[in-house]
Automatic annotation (TrEMBL):
<feature type="transmembrane region" description="Helical">
    <location>
        <begin position="51"/>
        <end position="75"/>
    </location>
</feature>
<protein>
    <submittedName>
        <fullName>Neuronal acetylcholine receptor subunit alpha-7</fullName>
    </submittedName>
</protein>
<dbReference type="InterPro" id="IPR006029">
    <property type="entry name" value="Neurotrans-gated_channel_TM"/>
</dbReference>
<feature type="domain" description="Neurotransmitter-gated ion-channel transmembrane">
    <location>
        <begin position="1"/>
        <end position="95"/>
    </location>
</feature>
<dbReference type="Pfam" id="PF02932">
    <property type="entry name" value="Neur_chan_memb"/>
</dbReference>
<keyword id="KW-1133">Transmembrane helix</keyword>
<keyword id="KW-0812">Transmembrane</keyword>
<dbReference type="InterPro" id="IPR036719">
    <property type="entry name" value="Neuro-gated_channel_TM_sf"/>
</dbReference>
<keyword id="KW-0675">Receptor</keyword>
<feature type="transmembrane region" description="Helical">
    <location>
        <begin position="20"/>
        <end position="39"/>
    </location>
</feature>
<dbReference type="InterPro" id="IPR038050">
    <property type="entry name" value="Neuro_actylchol_rec"/>
</dbReference>
<keyword id="KW-0472">Membrane</keyword>
<feature type="transmembrane region" description="Helical">
    <location>
        <begin position="142"/>
        <end position="163"/>
    </location>
</feature>
<dbReference type="GO" id="GO:0006811">
    <property type="term" value="P:monoatomic ion transport"/>
</dbReference>
<dbReference type="GO" id="GO:0016020">
    <property type="term" value="C:membrane"/>
</dbReference>
């Protein structure tokens, strides 16, 4: 059950800071389970059992999951801060919609977007989110879902084959 839950934090959106807490909780759960298994195994064994190899590899995967989720959250924070810093306007300089659009259209080509939504909320920010494009954090999160699931399936397959042989 814990092995399947290793992929769970990557299915949460980078917008949710709880994904790092779920990763850390899984890592602590593996620590407790590994300690429990260590107490039940005989100490005079010459060979390392398959379950120990499997649990150790899952522990390493959970540890790397914490690091990867932290990287996704940091990348998401950087992207959101950069977007707010570049495309925000102060409330005191309230520009009319046409002037704001003209100012945004004069940005360099790599920072332009096709759809502009001018919101008149309390922060006075200009929302430039394009629904068709995903952020770098979302792309990295998707890649990590694929990698994590593939590694989990490979580790489980290897462990089952070793137990059968």
């Amino acid at each position: 059950m814990l092995a399947v839950m290793c992929a769970l934090p990557f299915f949460l959106s980078p917008d949710e800071p709880e994904k790092l807490m779920v990763s850390i909780t899984l890592l602590l759960s593996f620590t407790v389970l590994t300690d429990f298994i260590n107490r039940k195994l005989p100490e005079t064994s010459d060979n390392i059992s398959t379950i120990v190899w499997y649990m150790t590899s899952l522990f390493v995967q959970a540890f790397l999951g914490v690091i990867c989720n932290a990287c996704v959250l940091i990348l998401h924070k950087w992207d959101s801060e950069r977007g707010e810093r570049v495309f925000s306007r102060s409330r005191s300089a309230s520009l009319p919609g046409e002037v704001a659009v003209a100012t945004i259209c004069q940005l360099p080509a790599h920072s332009r977007v096709d759809s502009v939504n001018l919101s008149d909320d309390a922060s006075g920010t200009v929302d430039l989110s394009d629904a068709g494009k995903s952020s770098r954090a979302h792309k990295l999160n998707f890649c990590l879902i694929v990698i994590n699931t593939t590694v989990l399936l490979a580790l489980s397959l290897i462990a089952w084959l070793q137990m059968l042989l």
